[in-house]
Amino acid sequence: MKRILTVALAAILSASFLPSDACTNLIVGKKASVDGSVIVSYNCDGFGFASPLTLHLPGMHADGEMIQVRGWGPETQEERLVREASYTYGVVGLMNEKQVTIVETTWGGREELQNREGYLDYFTLMRLALQRSTTAREAIAVMHQLVQEYGYNETGESFAVADKNEAWIMELIGKGKGRKGAVWVALRVPDDCISAYANSSRIQQFPQVRKADKKLGFCITPDGECMYSPDVISFAREMGYFDGADKDFSFREAYGPMSFSKIRFCEARVWSFFRRHSDPAVIDGYLPFINGDMSEIDHLPLWIKPAQPVSVRDIMADMRDHYEGTALDMTADVSAGPWASPYRNQPVNFEASDGTKMFRERPIGCQQSGMTMVCQMRDWLPDAVGGVTYFNMDDATMVAYVPVYCGINRVPDAFRSENNNIREFSTESAFWMNNFVANMVYPRWSAMIGDLREAQAELEDFYAQDQKEVEYRASKMTAGDRVSYLTAKTEAYTDMMMKRWDKLARLLIVKHNDQIMQPSENGVVVPGRRTSPAYAPAFIDAVKAETGNRYVNPVQ
After folding, report:
1. Is residue 171 in a domain?
2. What Å distances lie between residue 263 and 46, 199, 293, 347, 508, CA to CA?
3. Number of folded domains in the chain?
4. For the residues 226-245, what does the mean pLDDT come to?
């Protein structure tokens, strides 16, 4: 008899995890990083959900064992069973015990290509691939095999698939009702480059071969730098999406065509990331495209070489980007309000009172993140300590990234699912403590953000310094001792974060009571002169322009 295990992903992430124009991934090749790490990141965005840290322990499985997949795909009474692998690797968050990492961002594409009868949503696909793969290449092959056998029920998706040696970008979309499988392309990011994804298809032309590899079941170029489904072009022809020469085929144009919203709300995030790590004057040459003009330039580079090597701390900062210092700076005009805030309450699209259609910017850092992570993979350390997910729940701008090692065997209490109920506030919940602080800061950004950044830097500086000792000690231990040590360190780091955020919350309430500011030192209010935080100049000028002389002091 077959034994059935249940993969209850719906209990981990609510259906509201599936917003449009949501998540952001940043990618750094090992020769583009300061220390030889491969780095990928993930802001998991969508209103009204919390995304706790998950743990799947490794295990051996009997022949014929099946698992029942329950993601957030279409509701069905049908029992959806997937064959279990003989051995499944441990997975913490979205990194497995071999330092294989998969993160994602949804781009939608052709609506008619969603097959609601497929068994696998993208998150189930990612989880299963992580449990069955020792390298990024193997993970891509596993994802292909799984969708071929069980079907894919989502829309267009991009995945950053990485390990301790290399990073790949993979774009995938289903084939529509009644068709299993998916069409996809995966390209290896050059080691000396950085790349990014933000809810739009970005792969256009790619290297091609004449025949698929019979053993793998898909195409792979001789240099091993490009893999793709064998029917990715022929299927586009069949559906009427493409009728040119094979060499001119563009995955993006066939399956995820550009629009103004895709450019401004999605590609602009990639543009800003590139601008932070390259010559701004060069990247600003793409501003006509970012403004919707595709007459001269119709795409950003898929990847670029950074001007300077990129660190984990750099990527943390990038995940908090709101276009500061660019032509799209969200703090610089009247819509930023009196406190020069990069956050907006109105929808992305809205209308003025005269019916004019308007929009707001959509940056990398946003209030609706359910969790954020920066994943670091290192080939010179034992896997258990070499793979680190810097993790927290809520908006990257408003949290401190906590180191979580891929070799742990227990999730810290504050990140556990049972302590992060989306409908009930708890001081034991990382999600709610972070939101408690963030929702005090959002309305009075310029007045309060300095206090938050002080606490954030204090923790992240400590973690970065302490990592050196952890890496040295853990690398000398036996495998069993290493797991216990790294689990204890991860729990200690998380506990430190929770205590510091409790202290920060109490400081903000006291220091900023009644919208004034009291002086503080080391996170504590001290005696001194109270001050009133100044309004943003753009807001003051807008008030003057709107109200004329009403508020002009006659004594100048």
Report:
1. yes
2. 19, 10, 10, 17, 38
3. 2
4. 97
